[in-house]
Amino acid sequence: MAQTYSIEFKEEACKRVQSGVPAAQVARELGINVNILYTWMSRFKEHPAEPFVGSGNLH
To answer: Residue 3: which of 36, 40, 44 has the closest Cα?
Structure first.
């Protein structure tokens, strides 16, 4: 079964990368795949107000 992460968790991870911490290091510290983090970063940049809407809701 796929792991789910809270919106706050995803936003905090993205903010850490934006603050200058390498994505690989953030992913390793949080125990997630770096590719997942890059996907979150992409969504975070596209829709900064609501990057992770969840529950099947699209932008």
So the answer is: 36
Q: Are 7 and 54 in contact (CB under 8 A)?
A: yes
Give rounded-to-5 percent helix, strand, coil for the chain.
55, 0, 45
d(CA 29, CA 3): 16
pLDDT score at 57: 53
Whole-number Å distance between alpha carbons of 8 and 31? 16
The pTM of the full predicted model, rounded to 2 decimals, is: 0.78
Specify the DSSP class assigned to residue 48: S
